[in-house]
Amino acid sequence: MIEVRELTKYYGERPAIRNLSFDIQAGEIVGFLGLNGAGKSTTLKILGCVLLPSSGQVRVDGLEVTSQPHEVRGKIGFLPDTAPLYNEMTVGGYLAFAARLRGVASRDTPARVRESEEKLGLSEVHDDLIGTLSYGFRQRVGVAQALVHRPHLLILDEPAAGLDPVQIVEMRGLIRGLRGDHTVLISSHFLSEISQTCDRLLVIQAGEIVAQGTEDELAASLGAPGEIEVAVRAPAPKALDVVRQVSSVLDVRIAHATNQEIVLKVRAREERRPEIARALILTGHELLRLDRSTSRLESVFIELAHRKPEGPS
Amino acid sequence: MNAALLIARRELGTHLRTMSGYVIAAAVLLVEGILFNAFALGTQQDKHSAEVLSDFFYFSSGMTMTAAIFLSMRLLAEERQTGTLVLLTSSPVRDRDIILGKFISAFLFLALMILATAFMPALIMVNGKLSFGQVAAGYLGLLLLGSSALAIGTLGSALVRSQLLAVILSAAMLVAMIIVWLLAGVSERPLNDVFMALALWGRHFPPFQAGVINLRDVAYYILVTYFALFLATRVLEARRWQ
User: Fold this and answer.
1) Cα–Cα distance between B220 and B145 in angstroms, integer?
2) How near does any CA of chain B get to the CA of A85, in Å?
3) What is the mean pLDDT of each run of 10 residues along chain B (242 residues)?
4) Is a pLDDT exceeding 90 seen at residue A78?
5) Which of B1, B90, B242 sits opposite A100 (nearest CB)?
6) DSSP state of A124
7) Partner A contacted by B14 (CB < 8 A)
8) Distance, CA of B183 to CA of B174 (rounded, Å)
């Protein structure tokens, strides 16, 4: 779907990105992760055919972005870091305009607008002026304009930035709902935010890719054992021993205990969540919660974000 | 629908839905009305209707250029400032269609504003006799002059991010093109002929004012419009390389 080779972009004398190379397969949801100024937005703007690269090749569906930008733009939906919204237009009018710009026939436009509004939960504000909407709704309209023409590739630059926790959860659900219909590339500077939504992560630092893979692969590449958080109904005096006996588990400790639940922190060499769950249930424990530890995700990201790019610079 | 017309329709809707267009139109019509009453109609000496009409087009040409600069300031500068230009530049729309669409919308609004002044020539009919040929030629001249000024304003708006800077830059380019005839007085042939031919107002507008349509003047305004829009398109294209 996307092939990027040796992509470089200079702003004046300063390189924003250098020799980026990666592939994205059709149907994947890929997270593009990096700190502010790492080069995420520049890369996404090039993929979105808004900017042209200084050198390198980018192919979308076999089409070259520098020589066939017009054709590439018809295949993508792009949400930049600031949603491009006209405050004086209604949501329905704006989405119809976006659809027509992307080549949707006028007879199909009302159905496409309805479809994207339903996907993003915007039906109730169809006739509202965009300028009167809350920030969360405005972000949704931004996503809706990117997918109103059913693009093959959806590029979302920090779609959850500025949203409150409830809106972030909603946005995560919306993006998960796009799986299957679109190839999606999302940028963020929160690993915990996109690791739950994406199949794979690309980590960019100072304009270069420093790591790529699933969250577990990234953790493994750093030699960081996975930390898992397990909550069981109290009392559970044997839970610690049961988990300790699961193979590959390195260390188990009680993080905190109340009258209702006991929370264990487990470190394992590799993915052992199913085995831990099975062991606890088979020994009669009531399993309340089992997930990767969020603090571990952030430490993995911080480690990656400060990693020096490999190879000659 | 062609992308340029699609953009033009949305932009025209914005001109008609927001206050800024009406404020510019109201201010221009107010000033033009005052000038018309004070200088065209209100002088003590007797004037022929044709002279009054010529004075009216004289004032209107200045106000039309002023309105064009203010109408065009937001066309691209505002979109870049607010980040909405990305919607157009990431869509399968050619840069020339973006420029053309924006120009068409502003031109239609300017044309509506120019036509709204038609009551002033009509007032001449109360005490005089109106030459409809002179009226038609004068309005054609205003539309052509307005089109050139708008295109220069569009170029100014493409060059900078701030609307205020866009007005200053566009006004500077416009004034330079108006006063270029001054250079004709201090240069020799054939250079002075070139300077005279380039002058946006002094050489090409007075014939329209007097009711005369020269193909040369029509072609000049169309060429200025085309050239300025062509440059604005190139500026937009160049921004993708920045």
Assistant:
1) 10
2) 6
3) 90 88 90 85 74 90 95 93 93 95 96 93 83 94 97 96 95 93 82 86 91 95 97 94 78
4) yes
5) B1
6) G
7) yes
8) 15
Sign of the C-alpha dihedral, residues A42, A47, A53, A55?
A: positive
Which pairs with CB-CB distance under 8 Å and at least 24 residues apart come from B224-228?
B224/B148, B224/B151, B224/B152, B224/B177, B224/B200, B225/B147, B225/B148, B225/B150, B225/B151, B226/B151, B227/B151, B228/B148, B228/B151, B228/B152, B228/B154, B228/B155
Task: Find out whether A145 and A98 touch, Cβ atoms under 8 Å.
Answer: yes
Is omega for the bond preceding B190 within 30 degrees of 0, making it cis? Answer: yes
- Torsion sign over Cα A300, A304, A305, A306: positive
Q: Are B242 and A82 a contacting pair at CB < 8 A?
A: no
Among the four given CATH numbers 3.40.50.300, 3.90.1150.10, 3.40.50.2000, 3.40.50.620, the one describing domain A2-219: 3.40.50.300
- Using DSSP's 3-state secondary structure scheme, residue B26 falls into helix
Closest CB to A50: pick one of B3, B6, B90: B90
User: Per the CB < 8 Å rule, is A84 touching B17?
Assistant: no
Multiple choice CATH, A224-303, 3.30.70.100, 3.50.50.60, 3.40.1000.10, 3.40.50.300: 3.30.70.100
> Cis before residue A80, ω within 30 degrees of 0?
no
* Whole-Å CA distances, B146 to A184, A218, B66: 46, 61, 9
Amino acid type, B223: L
pTM recorded for the entire structure: 0.83
Rounded CA Rg of chain A: 22
Nearest partner of A206 among A59, A42, A54, judged by Cα = A42
Give the amino acid at A126: H
Single-letter code of the amino acid located at B235: V
Q: What is the pLDDT of residues A118-136, one digit of tens each?
A: 988 899 999 999 999 998 8
Task: Quote ipTM for the complex.
Answer: 0.88
Domain count along chain B = 1
pLDDT tens by residue, A206-231: 888 888 888 777 766 665 556 788 99
Q: Which of A48, A83, A89 sits opposite B90 (nearest CB)?
A: A48
- Report the residue of chain B nearest A105, measured CA to CA: B1
Helices (H) and strands (E) in chain A, counts: 11, 14
Q: Tell me the DSSP string of B58-114.
A: HHHHHHHHHHHHHHHTHHHHHHHHHTTHHHHHTSS--HHHHHHHHHHHHHHHHHHHH
Q: Where are the domains of chain A?
A: 2-219, 224-303
